[in-house]
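Researcher: Next entry in the queue.
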Amino acid sequence: MKRNDNRFVCALARTGVLRIGCVLSLTLLSALELLSQPKTENTVRGTVAEILWSNYGSQAKVNVNGKVYQLDLAGALTGRGATDQEAKTWADSLQKLHPGDAVIMVIRGALNESPGGVTPTISIRPAPSPTRPTSTPPGIGTQAPNCSFITVDEMATVLGTRPVRDNEAPCVFKTARNQFVLALSPGSNMGQFSDQRKVFGWAGATFKEESAIAPQAFSFVFTNTDGLNTGFCVLKGTFLIVVEVIDEQPGGVSASDRINKLRLIVKNAVARI
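Model: Structure for this entry, 273 residues:
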């Protein structure tokens, strides 16, 4: 019996005839849900491959030891559905992640290996890692750390002050009002570049082609609960590059000013990779 069918039966219980059956049906359904859920919780490390935004609930694709798994909020995979707070926490966590970010996940049971399978996930967050130096950009053609292709000094020319690296998210640099987010994903292709554009599109972004930076490059601007978001996405060879500035308190900052200042340092950074 589907969840909606069960509600229909319970509505009929007002007659008194179906009251006992309704209670038993609900109890049995809850028991079956509990039995079907894995009992154990496991912590797994991986790298974000893609964030899938949807009006019906967002999911994440994460690379673990060379295999990509699809994750969804554990509560959303049960008949009861996720609570509003669970759904909000999950959405807020995904909104802060980008392709290439190292993450730690707490999942129910084991990773789902079946084609099209979804792994019930309790939480996902950026993985702490040793601080990488940002003073020297990577050389041409190197497998660069995904947080070092733009220097802190370059970030300061955009933000107006030097940001500080976030201890728990090494690809995020912060000031009191801003976040500067970097992601560099080796081994990428045109499909992943297009998917990244879709992700920003689902968030409500407007785009501009940036052929002066690279044949496959665009800038984006959108606003959400975090504030004003501006940035660039570039595919150079097999490197997918995402640079994003989040102005949590935009004040008098204009999107065009952010984009113009970002364009110069992104162009220089792409040339160094």
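Model: Residues 1-35, 129-145 have pLDDT under 50 and may be disordered.
Researcher: Noted, moving on.
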